[in-house]
UniProtKB/TrEMBL annotation:
It comes from Chryseobacterium rhizosphaerae. The lineage of its organism: Bacteria, Pseudomonadati, Bacteroidota, Flavobacteriia, Flavobacteriales. This is DUF4440 domain-containing protein. SUPFAM superfamilies: NTF2-like. InterPro entries: FrzH/put_lumazine-bd, NTF2-like_dom_sf.
Amino acid sequence: MNKIAGILLLLGAFCFGQQNQDIEKPIRNLFLGMKNADPELLKSAFSENAVLQTIAKDGTVKNESIQDFIASVSKFSTGDLEERILVDAVHTDGNLASVFTPYSFYLKGKFSHCGANSFQLVKQNSDWKIQYVIDTRRKDNCREIK
């Protein structure tokens, strides 16, 4: 009986791990697209009506259009932008996922700032897409992610 329980536990862990990889794929593609200044890969990470926001130091929330974000990233050269993340938490319910990722950001190889991203993803036509992302940005109390 213990062998059956162990096998079921391993199978469940494998399936959960695969589900997380599928959920994380558009997030990883977002940051790979930034690093490679690849507008098509960036665009593929987002749903059609995605929302992008940043929380300013004073607490106000600033909106940025996905198109403007992609256009600004596309002006950089490959390797100029690198955002290193840790996937801190993944929560799911059906076609909805929430992912929290602390990050450190590097501009042309030099540490620039850190913060956290909060992603809301939706599963559409068997693919996960970023529907909403909001982030914080700061230069102090940073833990650089390797």
